[in-house]
Amino acid sequence: MKLPTCCHCEKELKYKDLLKLTFAFRQHLQCSNCHMKQYVTKKSRAKTSLLTFPFLFLFFFLQYLQIPFAVLFPSYIIVAIGVLFLMPFFYSFTNDEEPLW
Ligand SMILES: [Zn+2]
């Protein structure tokens, strides 16, 4: 998997900055190389939100199997953290802010 690159200077963006973007729920990022602001594309926003669906499905499926909550909850947390840490690889950026819808 490759990390996204800056749309101004083509330099690969830092994983740390991308992770911060995930946790801050912001839609823009400043490149650490050229200091230009760039915005998450509509397409990658859709991709990252699609990542959460299999995760929700898994949760309901495990509940359906009547797996005890004591097992379900920690595994849910582990999967959630896994998804969050994978998100930086699914971002792509553009120079202009795109409308949400
Ligand atoms: Zn840059």
TrEMBL record:
Q: NCBIfam families, from UniProt?
A: cxxc_20_cxxc
Chain segments annotated as transmembrane: 46-65, 71-91
Keywords of the record: Membrane, Transmembrane, Transmembrane helix
Give the matching InterPro entries.
Answer: CxxC_20_CxxC
Kindly provide the name given to this protein in its UniProt entry.
CXXC-20-CXXC protein
Task: Note the superkingdom of the native organism.
Answer: Bacteria
